[in-house]
Design goal:
Layout lengths: L8 H10 L17 H13 L1 H4 L4 H16 L2 H13 L1 H4 L2 H25 L5 E5 L9 H20 L10 E2 L1 E2 L3 E2 L7 E5 L11 H11 L20 H4 L4 H7 L24 H10 L1 H9 L3 H14 L10 H12 L15 E3 L7 H10 L8 E3 L8 H11 L10 E3 L8 H12 L9 E3 L7 H12 L6 E3 L11 H8 L7 E3 L7 H11 L8 E3 L11 H4 L10 E3 L7 H10 L8 E3 L6 H14 L4 E3 L22 E6 L3 H17 L3 H4 E7 L21 E6 L2 H4 L8 H15 L1 E2 L2 H13 L4 H10 E2 L2 H10 L5 H8 L6 H9 L5 H15 L8 E6 L3 H24 L13 E6 L19 E6 L14 H13 L4 H11 L7 H9 L4 H11 L9 H5 L4 H11 L14 E5 L3 H17 L2 E8 L5 E2 L20 E7 L7 H10 L24 H13 L4 H9 L7 E2 H9 L11 H12 L6 E2 L1 H4 L1 H24 L2 H8 L6 E3 ...
Parallel strand pairs: 1-2, 6-7, 7-8, 8-9, 9-10, 10-11, 11-12, 12-13, 13-14, 14-15, 19-20
Antiparallel strand pairs: 1-5, 3-4, 16-18, 17-18, 21-23, 22-23, 24-27, 25-26, 25-27, 28-29, 30-31
Helix pairs in contact: 2-36, 2-37, 4-5, 5-7, 7-8, 8-29, 15-16, 16-17, 17-18, 18-19, 19-20, 20-21, 23-24, 23-25, 24-30, 30-32, 31-32, 32-34, 34-35, 37-39, 46-47, 49-53
Length: 1309
């Protein structure tokens, strides 16, 4: 029994839960449905509901009442929620008052939240909104939603790198009340994820700014203090040193400080203005004297020197500042006001000071007496050479200060040569040298080849080194670079390593990967920017990162990483326990690379992903790549390549997730030099795969866990498809969505990221709303239409996403592009598809159809069905065209869907109608038909509406015939027939509907649906088939035709066989009997024939068996009286139609009386050729005039003598009755057509008769009906109306249409 045919309320609820065209309802300003398309949807749905409720109409009344509220309230989002609550919740359905309250509360809450964010959350500012400031009418539920949104933006703020405690929230300003005083404990912090970054001033710009703002602008300043804010040394804090402190503050009166290029507050040492005021108040005279001195810097060092000389605890010649000033005086050098040289800091920080050798030599003189030096940073001083650096390093040797140095930075000191490097190696290797060194930065210094290995060995044996930077040092030019790196990685304390801008090859990257994976290596940060010497070098290293369990930061920017490398990263880092930041900027990953990296970002612990210019270059237009959500297909893997090993590991993970064995998922396995065994995990949780050999197989996850398409209910198929999508896709969490905000902001082209989210993730409405707010206004339609199908909230969530459109034009644009995905129903997927794969909604439909195709193919294999596919691959997809060409693949099941391009095909599959399913009642169908007839839509809009409601209705063949008559576009008619073919309740009567198609249209239907699936199993009489042996299903159709012909003893008239070479076989002895075996059929060539059989020879059992075995229909046992035997006017000649009309006129529509009259009194029940010719000679009718009168009658006799026995039985004679029924029906349909279009026969005559001579020619008739879109055998009807056989129709003859529509033959009028 069909599970779709129940009449209880549960079916109504389930059907509406899957119904998608609800979003098309768009009321206008007056509360009415705006377009005829929407009115058609509304009417068809209401009528379709009758099919599920039986005689009870309360459900329909309730539903239509809710639709009316949608139109009235114009709050479609909230009211649609009410619709779903009414339909899905029985308690809410019975409580109308609760429905009203629900509608008001939800719509009111949304308006308040929308108003709140418009008033209080500017796009790039930080606001603090108190609870009391929110408008009074926000309910508790509204406040809860608002609080959730506020927490969202707060998390976004924290994700941007700014802790909550460091934020300086601004107070919200009410436009009417001005400034509002708030309490921080009763406030919500709402901050945008994007804030303006602080402006970075250059050195000269900041210097000019501070000099302009200061009171003294005549100083001769050459140097400034460091970036840090140092503390005053104890010597300057004593009571006896008040004057010294005063002079260190440059002796300024008031609250002014010396200009500084780097210090935060402007004064030397970072002194606060308050301290300046207090010191200046103690001694005003000294301040005035100091302000008058020039230059100030010289005075400062002079006073400090004197103050240091007064210290009795130190000797004059041993003080560091004394030695420094002495060296400056001897060399005639202006002292540099560094915090280190002034004694304010123990850190020599001279970053980007442009120091020369003369500036550094006096500093080196201080090292002999300095008791402690924590840091030496000379980065960016490109003028320094060995002349000054070598003495500085020599002073460090065997000095107490050397044992305290923890940080040495010589970055970009590019003039340093071999002496400095050798001395540095000695310092690092010596036990008396830099034993406490933790940070070393020598990037930009070219290391001589002969000292590289020695340096790396010294660094590897160092016991305290933690941070090492060897960027741009020329390591790649050393032939022994692998030995150097192996020695370097022996350092157990190293946690940060930078090897950027060194050119490495494949072997070096493999060595780095092997060393990084060692257990003793505890690297937390690794930078390998711009190190790859070829396109594939860096990829060798990537898979080893899965074993580097301590990594937190990884920089792989500018390494020519392509799409394959992105897949390797996605596999290696997906389960990494510590990695939180990854930089792959400026790698040619292309748009497909966004798919892999976004999945990696979602499933791993990554918090920051830097991918600037990574998705805008490289494989942006690569069409084929591995797809996580649809991995089925054929694989040929070279296990020596990291990419192949990563693909195999991903497939094994998917098998583990779906609980599939190797034998279930991997079929047609062929291994060469390797073996695929059951997956084994290593100690890091990574699957062990072979590292050599080749492996070819077909991977499929649907063979073991797919549903039975032919037995599963409509809701079961949709549920299984949704469940499979949830297993293969990732549900985007809120915290990960927040962390994606910086990534979204930095991308110049944001579409690759949106596409990656649409094809790999399940998103919520909040995510779509977030991206719409972050994107530009013109991008909103693109974002919505690409993420719409991925929304997890069902039809209500998708409808809310549609409401994010800012204008009605955007709404209609989105709806037009996403209508196919909105109305797609897996329970009835059979139709013609035109998919643009660059649109994510169409791509999603293609993936769903491939999954359904696999499920149905697997069911056919398990059940042992015959292969009725077009290519012999059990696929339901036919007539594939990609970019207008036939693609070169054996099956679409094994084809990797490209990212772009136009894909067209016919899908002919899905569940068949179960036995006992009831079609629409005549009353309901008449109302349904009138809605379609009165609709003011175009033909394709009618098709969209009918396709949307097709899963909820079943039709009889006669009802489908009548419905097709209301469609005036012949192409759309065939599409509608395609959609409803598997919704027919009496497929054995499908000839009633098929007879209305012309011969050419019938041939197109055979090509569209397939000659086996659309084979005339029950009524093959007079069927003309033109088949190609090179196509699998057409070859099978020939086999079926021959088998049926031999079973029934039928005739194949006018057989024609064209061989592969183009020669014709006359088939003089008839069709070969060996063709009843499929294996004996020719491999190529074409065959055509017409099937004829006498009614008494019909084998109904064979026909029913073929219908079940080949057509896969569940038909009941059929008898001849169960079938409405029919004929098609296009299958018979015009002479037969004219002869029938003569018989009807002469014998008043009684064919039995005509048979008895021709057979004669005392006849034997058979009409011989002689009796037939004698009777025809007595006929005096203008329709059979001419010299070939006798030949025409003999052709009619041969048509009626189906057995070619030389006589016509009563059963064969009554074949004219099937032609008569079709002729009467077509006449009535033509009459109705004229009434629908013009209101009467006279009005139709005025339109069709163009010449004005009172006669309608055959050309006027044919062209007129074609332009009007009439569906029927127009030329056959013309021959019937032309009773005088003069080639024209008069108005009197044209008026016979009305009388024939009443069933009255011409002679009785």
């Amino acid at each position: 029994m069909d599970r779709d045919r129940s009449t209880d309320g549960g079916i109504l609820r389930d059907s509406l839960d899957l119904w998608q065209p609800i979003p098309i309802l768009q009321p206008d300003l007056e509360g009415r449905l705006a377009t005829s398309v929407e009115r058609l949807f509304d009417g068809l749905l209401g009528i379709a509901l009758k099919c599920f409720q039986g005689s009870d109409s309360s459900a329909r009344v309730r539903f239509l009442a809710v639709v009316k509220k949608i139109i009235k309230a114009r709050q479609r989002v909230a009211c649609l929620r009410c619709v779903m609550c009414v339909v899905l919740a029985p308690r809410a359905r019975d409580n109308e008052a609760e429905l009203e309250e629900l509608a008001q509360s939800k719509s009111h809450r949304r308006e308040q939240v929308k108003r709140f964010f418009e008033n209080y959350r500017p796009p790039q500012t930080s606001r603090e909104v108190p609870v009391g400031q929110v408008t009074e009418d926000i309910t508790k539920s509204s406040a809860a939603l608002l609080e959730t949104q506020c927490k969202f933006w707060q998390v976004a703020d924290i994700a941007a790198g700014k802790a909550k405690a460091t934020l300086d929230p601004l107070l919200a300003q009410d436009l009417t009340k001005g400034q509002v005083q708030t309490n921080s404990k009763q406030s919500w912090i709402v901050r945008g994820a994007r804030e303006r970054k602080p402006q970075r001033w250059t050195l000269a710009e900041r210097f000019r700014q501070e000099v302009a703002e200061s009171a003294c602008n005549q100083w001769d300043v050459r140097r400034t203090s460091s970036l840090t804010k140092p503390m005053l040394p104890p010597a300057l804090k004593s009571s006896k040193g008040q004057s010294v402190q005063k002079h260190v503050q440059l002796g300024l009166g008031k609250s002014l400080s010396a200009p500084s290029l780097h210090s935060r507050h402007g004064g030397i040492g970072g002194c606060q203005p308050g301290s300046l005021e207090s010191s200046s108040s103690l001694s005003g005279s000294h301040s005035n004297h100091s302000a008058a001195m020039n230059p100030v810097m010289a005075m400062t060092f002079n006073e400090s020197w004197k103050a240091e000389a007064k210290d009795k605890n130190k000797k004059k010649d041993g003080a560091p500042m004394t030695r420094y000033m002495t060296a400056c005086e001897r060399g005639g050098i202006l002292p540099s006001p560094l915090d280190f040289t002034t004694g304010l800091s123990t850190r020599l920080n001279a970053v980007n000071w442009a120091l020369a050798d003369c500036d550094l030599i006096p500093v080196a003189a201080m090292f002999r007496t300095v008791p402690q030096v924590l840091e030496v940073d000379l980065s960016g001083n490109t003028l320094l050479t060995d002349k000054s650096v070598v003495p500085l390093l020599q002073k460090m040797m065997r000095n107490p200060a050397c044992s305290t140095l923890s940080c040495l930075r010589l970055r970009q000191c590019i003039r340093l040569g071999h002496p400095s490097v050798e001395l540095l190696v000695s310092l690092i290797a010596s036990p008396q040298g830099l034993s406490m060194l933790k940070v070393l930065d020598i990037s930009g210094i070219h290391l001589p080849v002969k000292v590289q290995l020695e340096l790396c060995r010294a660094l590897g044996e160092h016991s305290n080194l933690e941070n090492l930077t060897l960027a741009d040092t020329g390591l790649g030019s050393n032939p022994a670079v692998r030995r150097c790196l192996d020695a370097l990685f022996n350092c157990n304390t190293l946690t940060a390593l930078d090897l950027s801008w060194n050119s490495f090859g494949d072997e070096v990257f493999a060595s780095i990967g092997t060393n990084v994976a060692h257990a003793h290596v505890q690297l937390r940060s690794l930078s390998m920017s711009s190190c790859s010497s070829s396109d594939t070098s860096a990829s060798v290293m990537l898979e080893f990162f899965s074993k580097a369990r301590s990594l937190i930061y990884l920089d792989l920017s500018m390494n020519r990483l392509d799409l394959s490398a992105a897949l390797i990263l996605a596999d290696a880092l997906s389960a990494h326990p510590c990695l939180t930041e990854l930089d792959v900027s400026r790698n040619p990953l292309g748009a497909p690379g966004a798919h892999f990296l976004t999945r990696l970002f979602a499933v791993s612990k990554l918090e920051r992903l830097h991918c600037m210019e990574a998705f805008d270059m490289g494989d942006a237009f690569r069409q084929h790549f591995f797809q996580f959500c649809n991995p089925e297909g054929e694989y040929d893997l070279n296990m020596a390549k990291p990419y192949s090993r990563a693909v195999l590991r991903i497939l094994l993970k998917l098998c583990q997730k779906l609980d599939l064995g190797i034998k279930q998922a991997f079929t047609d396995l062929a291994c060469e030099g390797c073996v695929l065994t059951e997956p084994v995990l290593d100690e890091h949780g990574t699957f062990q795969v072979p590292s050599a050999g080749r492996m070819a197989f077909v991977f499929s996850t649907t063979k073991a866990n797919g549903p039975d398409i032919y037995e599963e209910s409509r809701d079961g198929i949709a549920e299984m498809l949704q469940r499979r999508g949830d297993l293969c896709k990732i549900r985007l969490r809120l915290d990960k969505a927040v962390l994606l905000i910086p990534v979204f902001d930095t991308l110049q082209d944001k579409l690759p990221l949106i596409d990656a989210l649409a094809k790999n993730f399940v998103v919520d409405y909040a995510h779509v709303e977030m991206f719409c707010k972050l994107g530009k206004t013109m991008m909103i339609p693109t974002i919505i239409q690409r993420l719409l199908h991925a929304c997890s909230s069902g039809s209500v969530g998708r409808h809310m996403c549609l409401r994010l459109a800012s204008t009605q034009a955007q709404y209609r644009q989105i709806l037009q592009r996403t209508m196919l995905s909105l109305s797609f129903t897996p329970s009835n997927p059979s139709m013609h598809y035109t998919l643009y794969l660059d649109e994510t909604c169409d791509f999603h439909i293609a993936e769903c159809l491939r999954t359904l195709d696999r499920w149905e193919a697997n069911v056919a294999i398990r059940r042992g069905f015959f292969d009725i596919s077009q290519r012999g691959n059990q696929s339901q997809v036919r007539n594939e065209r990609y970019e207008g060409r036939r693609p070169f693949f054996r099956s679409i099941l094994d084809w990797e869907l490209p990212l772009i391009g136009k894909l067209e095909f016919d899908f002919v599959g899905g569940p068949r109608t179960a036995p006992g399913t009831m079609q629409m009642t005549d009353k309901v169908f008449e109302e349904f038909f009138q809605h379609v007839l009165r609709s003011e839509c175009r033909a394709w809009q009618q098709f969209e509406a009918l396709r949307a409601v097709s899963p909820y209705i079943y039709l009889a063949s006669s009802q489908l015939r009548q419905l097709l008559g209301a469609i005036y576009d012949p192409e759309v008619r065939m599409h509608i027939f395609h959609v409803f073919y598997y919704r027919l309740t009496d497929v054995w009567n499908v000839k009633v509907c098929r007879a209305r198609f012309s011969s050419d249209e019938y041939a197109q239907l055979l090509k569209k649906l397939g000659p086996v699936k659309f084979f005339p199993y029950i009524q093959p009489e007079q069927a003309q088939l033109d088949l190609d042996f090179s196509v699998h299903d057409e070859k099978l159709a020939v086999n079926l035709l021959v088998m049926l012909q031999q079973k029934e003893g039928a005739l194949l008239l006018e057989p024609r066989y064209i061989r592969e070479d183009g020669t014709e076989d006359k088939l003089v002895t008839g069709v070969p009997r060996a063709w009843a075996r499929f294996s004996d059929l020719p491999r190529a060539g074409t065959f055509s024939a017409k099937y004829f059989v006498a009614p008494e020879k019909r084998n109904m059992k064979t026909r029913s068996d073929f219908l079940a075995a080949y057509g896969r229909w569940h038909a009941p046992p059929l008898k001849q009286e169960d079938v409405s035997w029919w004929s098609s006017l296009s299958d018979v000649s015009l002479d037969i139609i004219r002869f029938l009309e003569v018989m009807r006129e002469r014998y008043r529509d009684n064919l039995h009386e005509a048979f008895r009259d021709i057979d004669g009194d005392g006849g034997n029940g058979l009409i011989t050729l002689k009796e037939f010719e004698e009777h025809c000679d007595r006929l005096e009718d203008s329709r059979f005039r001419g010299n070939n009168r006798r030949e025409r009658f003999r052709a009619i006799f041969r048509y009626l003598d189906a057995t070619l026995e030389g006589s016509i039985s009563i059963e064969e004679w009554l074949q004219l009755d099937t032609v008569k029924r079709e002729l009467d029906r077509q006449t009535g349909e033509l009459h109705d057509f004229f009434i629908w279009r013009y209101g009467g026969i006279a009005e139709a005559w005025a339109v069709l008769e163009q010449s004005g001579d009172g006669e309608m020619s055959e050309e006027e008739w044919s062209n007129g009906l074609k332009e009007l879109g009439y569906f029927g055998a127009s030329m056959e009807l013309y021959s019937v109306l032309d009773t005088t056989n003069d080639g024209t129709i008069s108005f009197e003859e044209f008026g016979c249409i009305a009388r024939r529509a009443q069933g009255v033959p011409g002679s009785a009028l």
